[in-house]
């Protein structure tokens, strides 16, 4: 920790003694203060936080997306971790924080020697706002952190409560001190890669971030959360349209702007969590969404698929477990087909050929092996399936479809080629936060229903499916989790619903009662279709795929949306609570709660590490809940 975020300690002497200044972006501490521009440090911080492929694959994809169930991977969702991945992320975020801190130090130093500029006061506030985000990212992952490091002293660690209180105060104060009438700097070398020195946009981001952080602590510190949230929400300066979104343009290749999901070997296959949310939600027919050529693949509304007992695990509370849908769902959330491609649908504008060094994406078939050694080949063209994560034991060995590119829906190429904008905060999140706050009875400028509807609408616009919004927002149809869209429709589904499956031996259709899952983390499993479940379900879908850390945080904070337990045909060593006798019952012990501190920190600062664990209040383990997530 000290090696990276405390290098600021020597900055003052370095800045005044170094005369050989050539490229401070290559060596940010070899600085001639007369030539240094604080914008360079700020943009280096923002640039670094885009995560080069070395960090992005491990942190964004294999940690955050996996923990948030945005794709089909067990990994940390099964309780495991990789210290080498964490070491790289720790090094990175420490450097990004250091560059944000250095921005402020350079400004203060230049003011001291008479080199201040008109926009420096605002730039200081921008750096504080951005640093607040980075601090939230740090604590959302690890927990306790030092909040005094930027002052150039040897810091002690602070509790999570102290960290989030500090973040809230920084966002409040920085927004208040921003002069939105200040012209952008005329210096052609000055650059703001997010908002182009539109100071009012930074204020909007600060206020929306303040709402996010206030809601983060709402379950453990509701009084503070309410006060902070209401002040931010009523500021009339929020991220409220797509033009306000905090986003950064990606770039193909290998650099910090490379797409965070661009590594071809990451399959990014649809998760069971998402699939159970998507199917049936909104009541929009697949035939209304797809070309006529695919209509014959669309199945009846009460058909769940072919039952393959010997190849598909059912030792999970996934309501779809055990079945293979040999076609397309009758109704599905319109964003599903815009986010994940259908296997074999090569005419789709989002069909990804990753990995391009094989023909796997266009090999749309796979084998299922039976206990007697016989095999059948399954054609996966125009089918829509996924499976649960976990350990499938022998059944997994017999299944040549599970997790195979070309056999299951996978993330569309628009998110994979480094040609998009990475979103850090979007207008839909503002509205879903507002909806949750209004539902709590907090004094905010919109009703919960109006804010909820607007969040859904903004997400539909982003995904290019606005034509379905009117039908969707009034739908009372349940998805596989037992949740509907219409905000006023809070009728609970029955315990089961009748579906039909195909017996692969006879081809006959058999009726069966399919249970809606019981989310025992949230309200002891008593509800599936209340208003908060709707809000978080829609927020989760809208945040797919850019904001997995936020989706993971909501699930840790509330137990929403419903995450199915990993399959345990064979026990999962890193999830010892989950076993063959309780796999139908959710528990926070079945889901990852944080990242472990890296070995580099443990080994180099034992006192700091001991203090961090004391403040954490538990073992340095993946399953130790953070302060705000202790249900």
TrEMBL record:
Q: Which key words are in the record?
A: Lipoprotein
Taxonomy, top ranks, is: Bacteria, Pseudomonadati, Bacteroidota, Flavobacteriia, Flavobacteriales
Name-wise, this protein is Susd and RagB outer membrane lipoprotein domain protein
**Which domain of life does the protein's organism represent?**
Bacteria
SUPFAM superfamilies in UniProt = TPR-like
